[in-house]
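Trying the structure run again after the queue cleared.
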Amino acid sequence: MKATVLYYSHKGKTAFLAREIAMYLWSKGLDVSLCSISDFNAEKLSGSDFLISGCWTCGWFIIGQHPHKQWRKSSKELSEKIPHHRTLFFTTYRFRTGSMLYFMKKVMRIPTAASVPFLKSKNGLLTPEDKRTLDRLIAVPA
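Done. Tokens:
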């Protein structure tokens, strides 16, 4: 199986988390492609079974959180290329993630009620619960 891990990072914390995710999936036997969303084109998604995509949390301290405009712009063309049950979103944050998942789903045209795994990290590291979430994602049948 193949997973594509895309990220948009501002100061490096999101890139670090993306690498952590990619290395964990690789350790589970997946063929993993890791790429900054600014260097990505939709053709690279061909053959991928899973899409893991994330960016840092923009917005005010405790309200108005949203994905960065560069992530939104690049992600629109990826919508509906991978089924939502094989998609995972992640974000890094300083204070709160607020509405990040809602807006990420909206950009990717995933119904609000659809269940999509979401990882959030303040320090860029995967927790044991994050690893269990990734394990559940890759166990989803086609």
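Helices lie at 13-27, 69-76, 100-107, 128-138. Worth checking whether this holds up in the mutant runs.
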